[in-house]
Write a sequence for this structure.
C-alpha cells in the first residue's frame, strides 16, 4: 500500500472550512462527529461550488446513539460507505463485551 501524505489544516469551527477551500478541488473532513451542526451547510456550499467533499466520522457514540452532524450528513450524501466490521469484531471480543466487565 502506498501512502501519499496530504496537507491538512486544523480548524476551530465548520465555518472555517470555507476560508481554506476556495482554491481546492477536493476537501476531506475527518472526525466529523465532533464538528458543530453548521458542517451540513458548509458541505452543501462546497458541493454546490463543485468541490468534492469527503467526510469521515463515527455515526454513533459508544451507547449506539447518533451524534453530531453525522445523521444529517448521511441524509444528504450522494454516496455512503459504512465500515462496521471492526466494531463488530471488537464487540465480540472481551474488550467490549459487557458480560465480561460485570464480573
Amino acid at each position: 500500500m502506498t501512502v501519499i501524505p496530504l496537507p491538512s489544516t486544523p480548524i476551530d469551527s465548520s465555518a472555517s472550512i470555507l476560508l481554506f477551500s476556495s482554491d481546492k478541488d477536493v476537501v476531506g473532513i475527518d472526525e466529523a462527529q465532533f464538528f458543530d451542526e453548521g458542517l451540513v451547510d458548509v458541505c452543501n456550499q462546497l458541493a454546490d461550488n463543485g468541490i468534492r467533499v469527503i467526510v469521515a466520522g463515527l455515526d454513533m457514540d459508544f451507547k449506539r446513539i447518533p451524534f453530531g452532524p453525522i445523521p444529517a450528513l448521511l441524509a444528504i450524501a450522494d454516496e455512503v460507505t459504512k465500515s462496521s466490521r471492526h466494531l463488530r469484531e471488537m464487540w465480540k471480543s472481551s474488550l467490549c463485551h459487557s458480560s465480561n466487565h460485570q464480573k
Notes: The longest strand covers residues 26-29.
